[in-house]
Amino acid sequence: MFGADKGTADTLDGKKLHIGIVQARFNESITDALAAACREELLALGVQEKHIRHVRVPGALEVPLALQALAEQDEYDALIALGCIIRGETYHFELVANESGAGVTRVSLDTQTPIANAILTTENLEQAIARQTEKGRDAARVAVEMANLLEGLS
Q1: Catalytic residue positions, numbered
Q2: Which sign, positive or negative, has the C-alpha torsion 54, 57, 62, 68?
Q3: pLDDT of residue 142
């Protein structure tokens, strides 16, 4: 929910973390803004620039495969999925939204790698623009928090 109370994390220290970002190019102006906000927040949380890997794929359906390839390298403490799916006039929106989301979750569970899912699913461009910065920052915070949490659980 937009503007929801997300609570406060105990620690958001990214100094020792390696983070991978997979960005879909489809709706590129939105996904570029997501990526910029995400990278800016990662740096603010202490993640070193040299420890951020950013790859781009054609669209949201390709994001899970790239996430899986990165997770299998066993170099990343957390991954981030960035994309934007805007409802059109056909069922394709539901297909892409559902399958990309399920794929991201499956990769996370199968590889035990935290993945912050910031693939926006909106009714229109205006909703996407309204969310692009906040969701990019949120994804960075989620990735850092979950990487630290899993480290503490192991």
Answers
A1: 92
A2: negative
A3: 97
What share of the chain has pLDDT > 90, as a percent? 85
Full-model pTM: 0.93
25 CB burial (10 A radius; 0-12, 13-18, 19+):
middle
Q: Both ends of the chain: CA-CA distance in Å?
A: 31
Cβ neighbours around 49 below 10 Å, total? 8
User: What is the side-by-side order of every strand in the sheet holding 19-24?
Assistant: 52-57, 19-24, 78-86, 115-122
Q: What percent of the chain has pLDDT over 70?
A: 93
Q: Are strands 115-122 and 52-57 parallel, antiparallel or unpaired?
A: unpaired
39 pLDDT above the threshold of 70: yes
Written in H, E and C, the secondary structure of the chain is CCCCCCCCCCCCCCCCCCEEEEEECCCHHHHHHHHHHHHHHHHHCCCCHHHEEEEEECCHHHHHHHHHHHHHCCCCCEEEEEEEEECCCCCHHHHHHHHHHHHHHHHHHHHCCCEEEEEEEECCHHHHHHHHHHHHHHHHHHHHHHHHHHHHHC
